[in-house]
Amino acid sequence: DVIFTQEQVDRSGGTGLPTDSFSALQGAVGQLFHVHPASVAYYLVPPLMSFLAVWALWRLLRLWAPRHVALCFALGLVFWLWSAQNIDQGGYPYVGSLTRGNYFITRIWQGKVVLVCWLVPTLYAYMTSWLAGRDRRNAVLIFGAAVAGIGLSSSGAFVLPLVFLAGAVGFALLRAWVPLVLLAVAAAIPFA
Questions:
Q1: CA distance 152 to 110
Q2: Which of 141, 132, 136 minimizes the C-alpha distance to 171?
Q3: Cα separations (Å) of 77 from 14, 84, 86, 102?
Q4: Chain segment 129-179, per-residue pLDDT in tens
Q5: N or C: which end of the chain has fewer CB within 10 A?
């Protein structure tokens, strides 16, 4: 990986930028504890973020489906572990370049996967809690999640506004206008 070789290896694709914010954080943690950044990325981040992602899914499902939380949780984990891209090649379907669990356990050391697996369910849990109780702490956490999403991946610039839009639809259906304003402001953060 180019980001762990002091940019001595040529990039194979992407935007041409040498590092993203999340990888820079992994490198900073490595420097702080005198550990190679690749060890932080591949040995520390996956178990930590897998735990946080599973916990975020559990928290969200306890809010959204309290009567069927175990079933929904099991289905969510099966989806995470077994989802992959199927490509139809001349009438013969096969799994392409994606491995099973591609947007969970096999690549959770990447910021974009952390965004999808951990931050999005956490953000929906915050929005649900904000709608239920209008707690200021949840409002602050929603804004913090909007900022953190940009740091995790540049994809956060277009993913997070869509997440906030999905929440806004629910808020509008419930005629919760004050929380809707909070979501509009939070959705503007990635654009700023």
A1: 8
A2: 132
A3: 29, 13, 19, 13
A4: 988 887 889 889 999 999 888 888 878 888 899 999 998 898 888 887 877
A5: C
